[in-house]
């Protein structure tokens, strides 16, 4: 009896109503943070993002995905071939079936606008906070600040 139920699920009629996912050859891209919109539905060739599951590249026809950004540099390869590098502190990446991609960053700044000494100062303050942290919460906050500081310093090297 159970076998007949399963068989009905895969009948010709059921299979004929299955939709086929279509992908675009172009990728619409949005990157924004609380302080600025960097891209708003502009077509780009490729985006490389830092993620906690490892850095990965996004091209048109990428499988739908949700990911969390880690502190680092998002590289955007525009249709013209120009590469724009934007530092993000954290955020999310959403890749949709229609090849649209949205990156929402907590904070984001063009790498060329970052100052090396200011980045080093952020890291030093974070390390100092870690050494003086007396609670688990303070240590966790300091560890996050250190991770962002290290990524900032690496971005400006």
From TrEMBL:
Single annotated GO MF: proton-transporting ATP synthase activity, rotational mechanism
Database matches in Pfam families: ATP-synt_DE_N, ATPD_C_metazoa
Keyword NAD: no
Domain ATP synthase F1 complex delta/epsilon subunit N-terminal: 27-108
Compartment(s) of residence: Mitochondrion inner membrane
UniProt domain F1F0-ATP synthase delta subunit C-terminal: residue ranges: 114-155
UniProt superkingdom: Eukaryota
Keywords: Acetylation, ATP synthesis, CF(1), Hydrogen ion transport, Ion transport, Membrane, Mitochondrion, Mitochondrion inner membrane, Transit peptide, Transport
GO cellular component, one term: proton-transporting ATP synthase complex
Function description: Subunit delta, of the mitochondrial membrane ATP synthase complex (F(1)F(0) ATP synthase or Complex V) that produces ATP from ADP in the presence of a proton gradient across the membrane which is generated by electron transport complexes of the respiratory chain. ATP synthase complex consist of a soluble F(1) head domain - the catalytic core - and a membrane F(1) domain - the membrane proton channel. These two domains are linked by a central stalk rotating inside the F(1) region and a stationary peripheral stalk.
Database matches in PANTHER family: ATP SYNTHASE DELTA/EPSILON CHAIN (PTHR13822), ATP SYNTHASE SUBUNIT DELTA, MITOCHONDRIAL (PTHR13822:SF7)
Quaternary organization: Component of the ATP synthase complex composed at least of ATP5F1A/subunit alpha, ATP5F1B/subunit beta, ATP5MC1/subunit c (homooctomer), MT-ATP6/subunit a, MT-ATP8/subunit 8, ATP5ME/subunit e, ATP5MF/subunit f, ATP5MG/subunit g, ATP5MK/subunit k, ATP5MJ/subunit j, ATP5F1C/subunit gamma, ATP5F1D/subunit delta, ATP5F1E/subunit epsilon, ATP5PF/subunit F6, ATP5PB/subunit b, ATP5PD/subunit d, ATP5PO/subunit OSCP.
Family: Belongs to the ATPase epsilon chain family.
Protein name as it appears in the record: ATP synthase F(1) complex subunit delta, mitochondrial
């Amino acid at each position: 009896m159970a076998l007949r139920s399963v068989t009905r699920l895969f009948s010709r009629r059921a299979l004929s109503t299955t939709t086929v996912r279509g992908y675009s050859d172009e990728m619409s891209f949005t990157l924004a943070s609380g302080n600025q919109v960097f891209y708003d539905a502009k077509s780009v060739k490729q985006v490389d993002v830092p993620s906690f599951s490892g850095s990965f590249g996004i091209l048109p026809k990428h499988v739908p995905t949700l990911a969390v950004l880690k502190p680092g540099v998002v590289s955007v390869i525009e249709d013209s071939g120009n590469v724009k590098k934007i530092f993000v502190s954290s955020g999310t990446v959403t890749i949709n079936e229609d090849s649209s991609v949205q990156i929402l960053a907590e904070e984001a700044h063009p790498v060329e606008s970052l100052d090396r000494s200011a980045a080093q100062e952020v890291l030093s303050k974070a390390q100092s906070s870690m050494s003086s942290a007396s609670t688990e919460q303070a240590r966790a906050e300091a560890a996050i600040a250190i991770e962002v500081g290290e990524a900032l310093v690496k971005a400006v090297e």
